[in-house]
Amino acid sequence: MSAGGIRPARPFPEAARDTLQDAQMRRNLKHATTTIREKRLRAVAELPDWEALRTRGAELKDASLSDLAEQLLTLEAAVKRCGGQVHWARDAAEACRIVTDLAALHGAREIIKVKSISTDEIELNAALEQRGIQAIETDLAELIVQLAGDTPSHILVPAIHKNRAEIRDLFRQKLGAELLTDEPKVLAEAARLYLREKFLSTKVAVSGANFAIAESGTVCIVESEGNGRMCLTLPDVLISVMGIEKVLPQWADIAPFMQLLPRSSTAERMNPYTSFWSGVIPGDGPQEFHLVLLDNGRTDVLADEAARQTLRCIRCSACLNVCPVYERAGGHAYGSVYPGPIGAILTPQLLQLEDENANTLPWASSLCGACYDACPVKINIPEILIYLRGQITPHKSHNLENTVESIAMKTAAWIFNEPFRFEGALKLARTGQGPLVQHGAIHALPGLLGGWTSSRNLPAFPAKSFRELWREEGEV
Amino acid sequence: MSGEARLEMLTRIHRAAAGPKLEIERPPIPASTRPRAEIVAQFAEYAAEYRAEVHRASEADLPVLLAALLSGQNVLVPEGFPAQLFPQPATHKPQTTHADLAAYDAVLTTCAVAIAETGTVVLDHGAGQGRRALTLIPDWHVCVVRSEQVVDSVPEAVAALQEAVLAGRPLTWISGPSATSDIELSRVEGVHGPRRLSIIVVD
Question: What's the pTM?
Answer without folding.
Answer: 0.89
